[in-house]
Amino acid sequence: MDSDFHLRAFQDQAAAFRSAVMQAGPDVEVSTCPGWDVRKLVRHLARVYAMARLSLALGPDSDRPQPPRPPAEFDDALAWWEDQLAALRHELSTSDPDRPVRAFFPGGTARAWARRMAHETAIHRLDAEHALAGLGPDHVHELIFDPELAADGIDELLTVLLQVPSWAERESKGRVLYHAPDAGRAWLVEYRPGLPPQAGAPTDAALEVDATVAGTADAVYRRAWGRPSTALVTGDAALAALTSGL
Questions:
Q1: What pLDDT is attached to residue 9?
Q2: Residues in CB range of 196: below 8 A, 6 or more apart
Q3: Of 11, 183, 197, 224, which residue is least crowded by CB atoms under 10 Å?
Q4: CB neighbours of 48 closer than 8 A, spacing ≥ 6?
Q5: Are the beta carbons of 179 and 194 closer than 8 angstroms?
Q6: What pTM was estimated for this model as a whole?
Q7: How far is CA 206 from CA 27, 106, 178, in A?
């Protein structure tokens, strides 16, 4: 997918996020992020945007940037979030999409950061909508992810972000199949003790697996990120849940 796809998704998801947090208000608990309220959710996402902006200005071997802390008051934090959003979208849209830059994930480029910000915002949009839904049934207006966007988010999580944490001390072992028929996509993740997981499209339809996560791309996307979902999980549920800890 090209950068324009992710930039459009980034903007759309940010607009939905803002709508949900404005309706919920700052003090509402975010059930999908234990210990967080909407204020903290806004401050977190604003700081992520600030970190992404700093990263775009650094070479790939640079140290991790330290963005400033967002304002504590909700209105000020939301205004800072809006400023960071606008500046980041401008920088992503005007940068060479393939220039190597600093990133916490493999293959850092402006193109990859646009993808990362689209999905970072989408998942936290879900969090904001769950917070809003906690106010009662009249506030539920959750949007369904387009299969193309959801499948892209599953792919990023499994083939890119799953390589980020240190697996040297982990003893996880087994295969998990993720299947989203409406998007025509499937992914196989193989966990290996002490090594990063291997992930990609399955090549053997008869391959034995230890767990399966299946459903619409929307549902599998949510489940892979540890959010409430209608996806069906069979087999080793703990193995299938490893991605939700990222």
A1: 97
A2: 162, 163, 167
A3: 11
A4: 117, 120
A5: no
A6: 0.94
A7: 50, 31, 14
